[in-house]
Design goal:
332 residues, alpha/beta, 6-stranded mixed sheet, 8 helices, 28% helix
Length: 332
């Protein structure tokens, strides 16, 4: 009888939790839609161009070599002509020093003193360098001293450098912004996610001469449809490339607790029993196809092998694997 009471009590607690979270989700979705409608997304003046662009994954789920560390997080080194950008700083799940990011940087001959600016896509654990960083709204390249220079950091929400890398200067990007010749933020796009709450995320846009806009994306919580819509509103140039995370943990995820696909639950603005579906993946592929891009590359850190296979089938020789240590190069 006591066991029955315990189970009944647990069931009541879980039910109450779900009711509260669903009510919060409904209000949060309404707020995100209102905020999105109010955002000013007029056409940007000419942002200029770059002749050469490369994206080197330093942290992601797959790699080209067993010598390189992998994890369900993101950090990309973006080089646009003579400008070097570090986009996100990975997860560092074991709170190590040196972190997987720093170890891979060493093996790939990437030096922190050569980084000109940073770009934080959004304030989630796998992009800020750890759970403690997410709670404190900080970012850490490692759990020990990292001699980052006094460089600008472009983020969609308030975030601070941790004590391990205190020198960078954070600028909160509240609307689309040109940050250097040929390089822009498309501005934050809000979405309210189940469990993760209100999330602002922006993507990096680089205009490659003779090609068009290459979008480099952290997680794609905004949805690729909204990212494309924002890019169309901002730029006269066509979308040439879509590279990075789009959050499709369908038929399997990278963060699992037993049979429970954690990424599928936390990364959607649907109730957990609906989550992200095969149909969502196929509809997003169709949205990308309509832009007829020259290159597509999907991060495995938050997308399943099933989703990656669908992208490979859809885009054929235009698809590029996104793996740590494998540079993606786009030239004029």
């Amino acid at each position: 009888m006591v066991i029955l009471y315990i189970f009944a009590g647990l069931a009541a607690v879980i039910l109450l939790f779900l009711i509260l979270k669903l009510a919060q989700l409904k209000k949060g979705r309404e707020k995100a839609h209102r905020d999105l409608a109010m955002m000013d997304c007029e056409k940007l003046p000419s942002i200029g161009t770059v002749k050469n662009l490369s994206i080197l994954p330093i942290i992601d789920f797959y790699s080209t070599s067993d010598d390189l560390k992998t994890e369900p997080g993101v950090s990309y080194l973006v080089k646009a002509d003579d400008t070097t950008i570090l986009l996100d700083v990975g997860y560092n799940t074991k709170k190590e020093h040196p972190s997987p990011l720093m170890l891979n940087m060493g093996k790939l001959d990437v030096k922190v003193e050569d980084i000109d600016m940073m770009f934080i896509s959004h304030l989630h654990v796998d992009h800020l360098g750890g759970m403690k960083e997410q709670r404190k709204k900080q970012f850490s390249l490692s759990q020990g001293p990292v001699p980052l220079p006094e460089i600008p950091v472009y983020a969609p929400d308030k975030v601070t450098p941790s004590k391990w890398n205190p020198r960078p200067r954070v600028e909160v990007v509240s609307e689309p912004k040109v940050i250097k010749e040929g390089i822009a933020s498309i501005g934050p796009i809000p979405r309210f996610l189940f469990l993760m709450g209100y999330t602002l995320e922006h993507s990096l846009a680089v205009n490659v001469e003779g090609k068009g806009i290459v979008l480099i994306i952290g997680c794609g919580h905004q949805t690729i449809e909204r990212i494309i819509e924002r890019a169309q509103a901002l730029f006269n140039e066509p979308i040439y490339g879509i590279i990075g995370g789009l959050h499709f943990p369908v038929n399997g995820g990278r963060v699992m607790i037993g049979p429970l696909n954690i990424q599928g639950i936390v990364g959607s603005d649907n109730p957990p029993w609906r989550g992200i579906s095969e149909q969502d993946v196929m509809e997003s592929i169709e949205a990308i196809k309509r832009e007829d891009p020259g290159i597509v590359s999907l991060s495995a850190h938050d997308s399943s092998d099933w989703s990656i296979d669908r992208f490979k089938e859809a885009f054929g020789d235009r698809y590029r694997d996104l793996r740590v240590g494998e540079e993606i190069v786009i030239q004029k």
